Each structure stands twice: as structure tokens, then as C-alpha cells.
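Dear colleagues,

I hope this message finds you well. In preparation for our joint manuscript, I am sending the Sporulation protein (Niallia endozanthoxylica) sequence together with its predicted structure, so that both groups work from identical material. I would be grateful if you could confirm receipt.
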Amino acid sequence: MSKSKYKKTLASTVVAASLLLSGCGLFGMEEKEKIDPPEEVTYTEEQTEVTEKTTNNEKEAADQTQEAETSETVKTELYLVDKNGYVVPQTLELPKTESVATQALEYLVKNGPVTEMLPNGFQAVIPDDTKISVNVKDKVATVDFSSEFKDYKAEDELKILQSITWTLTQFDSIEQVKLQMNGHPLEEMPVNGTPIGDELTRKDGINIDTSQVADITNTKPVTVYYIGGEADSYYFVPVTKRVSNKIENNIDAAINELIKGPSVASHLLNEFNSDVELLGEPKVENGKVTLNFNESIFGSFDKKMISQNVLDSLVLTLTEQQGIESVVVTVNGKAELMNEEGKKLTEPVTRPENVNTGSF
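The corresponding C-alpha cells are as follows:
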């Protein structure tokens, strides 16, 4: 998976909310009060200079205050659970701290500090009142939970594991996660007994879908990004599918799953046309993958335009692959595509530093 997506130094959601504004008595007044016109005021040149200087100073002070407030927060991906039960990254502005890993997990605790920040339909996953400490060494994060950690429902166990693992491994300094409770290593989860093993990584998957797999032993995992939410409030959902071991190229496998789309009962969407095809093997060079599609990749044939959701799904999915940093999309061997804003895609598209921020 591309390292760029983990960089932090997990914010807002892609969910776009609409505001209904109502005026109170704006046109309902029967009689207006009479207001005397302002007296004519004449400023001397010296007074004008003082006024302008004061205004500039006030503006500069306001700008500095806004900059200071911005620098006191940091965008962090929190893997929260949506109304359909999917573990989904939502980027929120958290207070700046040196203990970013510990803070990220504290914001996953139910009824904790994240409560007032939760996007509509989302919830935190770690049980109420759980105390957490994180120790990071050699890219392994050892997380110790208090006894409250075991107070969850069995059906939430995998969601908790995935949320913790994917939230922590967004950071460059963490690749693996180990769990403890009251200082004792956990070899399995305390409620439903899900095996944990030596460590947890993103290779274990997220929102795992095996619905179309007959024999899981001859498959391997590949994570793709579909669209969740509703009109005007869409966001990207990572889903780990199982694909045949016979497919040697994971890039091919991922694109095939994007074109195939999510299962009918998944509540997820996909904007890829079923006729989309790769016209050749993906070419990978220096972290850049070049894809050559047929014209079915276009969302608008006459303008040679690619849907932003299609482009975003491609970039998010392929930068999950080890060593892939950016994506170039061509059609019939030519790089003549435009995005929905009418801009030509002349440069490779990289993964955003944060996912589901409200803008890609």
C-alpha cells in the first residue's frame, strides 16, 4: 500500500450537508421605524491614514488568529462504522498532540471526545470508558486496553479489530499492531474469540466480502474502494474481496473487481460501466502505474471526460498496492482525458493525504 496515504503529521467527511435557512420576520413587518439619515462626516487626511492603519492591523491580527487556530489541529483518519455496518475512514480535525497514535484510538471510544464530531450515521467502535495506551517501536504499535475493552457485542468484534488496525497504520511509523488488556497480550479477542496472532496488519483486510467465493483456500485478498452513502453525501468504502490465486497481477485483479462492482445486497455503489476493459497489461515504473482502457471508461464520450468517482476509486484502490504511488489513465493509448471540472489529466494522479475529507 502506498505510504503517502498514511502520512500524518485520519477530517471532515465527504458527506456534503445542505443547510435550510429560514428568515424570521424579514418581510413580515407592518411598519418600519423612521431612522434619521447619517450626518455627513468629513475626515482629515491624518484621520484617514489612522483609520486605514487600524483596519489593516485588525485584518492582520484576524489572519494571524485564524492561522494559529488552524495550526492547533491536525487532520486524522478515524475508521468509524457507518449505518450499514461498514468500517469507513473519515478525516476529522483533531487537537494537535505529540501522542497522535494514542489520541486517534481515544477518538474511537464510544461516548468519548469524538461524539460531537461524528458525521451523520457514523459511530465509534471501542467500548465506553476504555482507557488506552500505545507504545510504538520498530514500526510495531503495542496497544494496551483497560478491562472495559471487553464490553462489546460479538458481532462487533471484527469491526473493532479493523478500525483499530487501519486507524493506526495510517501513520508512517506503524505497520503492525499488537493488542494487550491490562498488560497481558491478547492472542484472541475476549468476546467472540477471533484469533489475533502475532500482529495485525492491513493485509488482514477490511469489510471482508466472501459472498462470491466458493473455495476461499484458493484465493487471495485484494482491497478495492466502492461508493457508500447517499446522493449528495457519498464517501468511499474500502472492501476486501477474495480473488483467484490464478490471477497473478494484483492490479488486474483489483480493476476486475471494480468493474464487476459490489454485491447487490451490499448497499454500495459503483460507477464503472460493465463494458470497461484494459487494452493491455498495466505498466509500473518508479511507483507510477499506467493504465490503457477502452472508451467505456469515459463518463462523457463527446467530451472524453472521466467521472470523478471512477477516477477516485481507481486511485484509492491501486495505491493500496505495494509500491504504487500514482496512476496515469489513458484511452486507446492516448492521454486525452478530462476530469469533471474540464481540466486535462496531464499529470499522474496521486492518492490524497486523507480520505473522505469532503473533497478529494
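For the figure legend, we might mention the following. Residues 1-43, 64-69 have pLDDT under 50 and may be disordered. The radius of gyration is 25 Å.

With kind regards,
E.M.
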